[in-house]
């Protein structure tokens, strides 16, 4: 039983280390993208920013739009 427990603990520790590394990479990538975004915002003209914002607006889903059709009993199809 101890052998199984030790094996599982080792596997879990290994997986945790892999996930920690992935988190570090994602945090680094996120920081890089935030710096890039900030730079682009400072370099963009007000007209460009307005045009960009207007492009984003239509893509936002309307809250009254149903996500899935409903059957007569109120359950989803």
From TrEMBL:
It is found in: Cytoplasm; Nucleus. Keywords: Cytoplasm, Nucleus, Phosphoprotein. It comes from the Eukaryota. Coiled coil: none annotated. The keyword Glycoprotein does not apply. Residues 65-77 have a biased composition (Low complexity). The keyword DNA repair does not apply. Its main location: cytoplasm. GO terms for cellular component: cytoplasm; nucleus. InterPro entries: TSC22/Bun, TSC22/BUN_CS. Residues 41-77 are annotated as: Disordered. One of its GO terms (biological process) is negative regulation of activation-induced cell death of T cells. Pfam families: TSC22. PANTHER family: TSC22 (PTHR12348), TSC22 DOMAIN FAMILY PROTEIN 3 (PTHR12348:SF24). Belongs to the TSC-22/Dip/Bun family. This is TSC22 domain family protein 3. The gene is TSC22D3.
